[in-house]
Amino acid sequence: MLAALLLSFAGALKAQTADEIIEKHIKALGSREAWDNVKSLKMDGSMSAGGMEINITQTMLPGKAVRTDVNVMGMSGYTIVTRTQGWTYMPFQPGMDKLDTMKPEMVKASQFQIDLQGRKIYDYKTNGTKVEYQGKDTLNKVACHKIKFVDKDGNESVCYYDATTYYLLRTESKVKVEEQEQEVAMGFDNYKKLDGGILMPMTITTPQGDLVFKSIDVNKPVDEKIFLPEVPKK
């Protein structure tokens, strides 16, 4: 009985520690209220990959839709994801020169792109996500807190938070690609305060290279017609 009580007490301490770290992270990026007031985001950036310069623009209406425009070698493509549908048009990739409608499972897997609150794990207590504090670690000589997240579908990710600023520095997620599970790591750096009092990283390290944003517009008007698929006329 004593052992069971001690284990229960230790588990409660871990959960409390994870909750405290997440709350400090949310506060470090502005506040819940500030993020609730984000109605649109437009992010312009670029990345170098395979010796090519790739320009990327992502436009989001949180909770509704997201469009990612990609320009490479003078050719333009895009992906669109809404709550119920999705499309891909990437003419610079082999076999993708025609508009492709996403399968329902892909649309479901892409919903995180438009779930801004979910991205910031603000609603983890109500959406069925479990959290576990995994202690401290070091990233590039920076002391970090490690927290493991498991969502309601069983998807796992480990997040590293700066122990001083509480900014998110790195995520390690397990994803399925063609029925095979792979681990994808991403890094976050160069946080900047934006309109509305929110902070976002201006540099994201991906397996393909560093995505560097030159500008992020908050709550600027967005024509919702851009979320309807259309193949450019040649």
Give an overview of the whole structure:
By secondary structure, this protein is an alpha+beta fold. The protein has a single domain, classed as Lipoprotein localisation LolA/LolB/LppX (outer membrane lipoprotein receptor (LolB), chain A, Clam), CATH 2.50.20.10. The protein is 18% helix and 47% strand. The protein has 4 helices and 13 strands. It has helices at 2-28, 32-36, 104-109, 116-119, and strands at 41-49, 52-61, 65-72, 75-82, 86-89, 100-101, 130-139, 142-150, 156-162, 168-177, 180-193, 199-206, 209-218. Strand 9 and strand 10 (168-177) form a beta hairpin. The protein is globular, with a radius of gyration of 19 Å.
End-to-end distance = 74 Å
Helix content: 10-25%
* Fold-level CATH name: outer membrane lipoprotein receptor (LolB), chain A
Integer average pLDDT: 85
Oligomer: single chain
Total number of domains: 1
What's the CATH H-level homologous superfamily?
Lipoprotein localisation LolA/LolB/LppX
Look at the structure and give the CATH class. Mainly Beta
Q: Number of DSSP helices?
A: 4
Shape call: globular
Question: If strands are numbered along the chain, what order do they take across the biggest sheet?
Answer: 6-5-4-3-2-1-13-12-11-10-9-8-7
- The ordered string of helix (H) and strand (E) elements is HHEEEEEEHHEEEEEEE
According to DSSP, the number of beta strands is 13
Cα radius of gyration in angstroms: 19 Å
Q: Structural class, from helix and strand content?
A: alpha+beta
Segments where pLDDT lies below 50 for 5+ residues?
A: 1-15
Biggest sheet character: 13 strands, antiparallel
Judging by the overall fold, what is the CATH architecture? Clam
